[in-house]
Amino acid sequence: MILLALLSLGIWIYLIAAHGAFWLSRPELAPVPRAPGPPVDIVVPARDEEATIGAVVASLLAQDYAGSFTVTVVDDNSTDRTAERAGAAPSLGIVRGAPKPEGWVGKMWALEQGAARGTAPLILFTDADIVHEPRHLSTLVAHLQGSRLDMASEMVRLNCVSLAERALVPAFVYFFQMLYPFRRANDPRSNTAAAAGGTILIRRGALERIGGVHAIREALIDDVSLARAVKRSGGSIFIGHSTLAVSIRPYPAFADIWRMIARTAFTQLRYSAWLLLGTVLGLSLVWLVPPVAALTGSGAVRACGVAACVLAASSYLPTLARYRRSYLWSLALPLIALFYMAATVGSAADHWRGAGARWKSRSYREPV
């Protein structure tokens, strides 16, 4: 046990000191005033989003942006009244999506159709559950242009109202930062690449350079796949946190968040049983060994466990502050991590029994 406790503590010292400062929950774009900018095509893929699409489109049409922009909602064969609820405006286009071709993920096919309708040098891909403050587009464009980036994306503020959301949503952001440290993703010398699919502003030239949306047509984890493709092509990317955009998609129950995690968790592990096993063992070492050592060990074992627990809990505080949650939630982090581990194993079980990833009444059974 002393070896496990020492190893766990060593991992936490590395994570805090040398893992891209992921725990700081930065960077964050500061809002900028209205300023001239190039034309932007805004593309919103939407499937069965009648509950949110009206507010989303209204927020996009109200952008305080000095340049020209258009909004295109691609109705991805919805079974509800998504297209009707999107509204009408001179700068708004509603595209009734063509049937999804074989080999395409639904969202990617919708983005392909939306991007093909415009010619603006910048494209903003944004989800149909993201509401934007009026300064958001100006802020994104100013950062992209000022930093000479090819792509900029933000982790928008996620819905955090229900008990399940308050318990698990800040941890989702925290674990994403741990998996893809933003500082490393933003460093052109690092191989780490990441994006958050809620808002992605990309130069049309950069998208064309990687082969367009077609290049990631099979990607279930489309945002990270796009970031990797852009960075591998020599492009510069940025990912940060947003104070100007919020997701209004609710996750009222723990089961809803379980399904959200399980949808792509095994995809992230490339459908590998060995990677799953290694992930479970690694996460157990990081999250379960410290509290077990602190509560059941003695002497050096307990000291290592307590030290690792203190580092883990402390690393969660900036994310809790971002979501205005009590710091006491940091004490529950091992149990929260256990939930995410179980959902990852559940994702693998779904795949092995043939259920595959499922989203918006579509099932993706084959590895992509």
Please provide a written account of the structure.
The structure is a single chain. The chain has helices at 2-18, 53-61, 82-85, 106-116, 136-146, 163-179, 182-185, 204-209, 222-232, 254-262, 265-268, 273-296, 299-322, 333-352, and strands at residues 40-46, 69-75, 92-96, 122-126, 130-132, 151-157, 199-203, 237-247, 357-359, 362-364. It has 368 residues and is α/β, with parallel strands linked by helices. It has an 8-stranded mixed β-sheet with strand order 3-2-1-4-7-6-8-5, sandwiched between helices. Strands 9-10 form a two-stranded antiparallel ribbon.
> Structural class of the helix and strand makeup?
alpha/beta
For the report, how would you describe the main beta sheet?
8 strands, mixed
Instruction: Write down the Rg.
Output: 21 Å
Point out poorly predicted stretches.
none
Q: What is the CATH topology descriptor of the largest domain? A: Spore Coat Polysaccharide Biosynthesis Protein SpsA, Chain A
Helix coverage percent = 40-55%
Task: Give the total of beta strands.
Answer: 10
What is the annotated CATH architecture of the largest domain?
Alpha-Beta Complex
The general outline is globular
CATH class of the largest domain: Alpha Beta
- SSE run: HEHEHEHEEHEHHEHHEHHHHHEE
Overall mean pLDDT: 93
Query: How far is it from the N-terminal to the C-terminal residue, by CA?
Result: 40 Å
The largest beta-sheet arranges its strands as 3-2-1-4-7-6-8-5
Q: How many helix segments?
A: 14
The percent range for strand residues is: 15-25%
- What is the count of structural domains? 2
Task: Give the CATH H-level superfamily of the largest domain.
Answer: Spore Coat Polysaccharide Biosynthesis Protein SpsA, Chain A
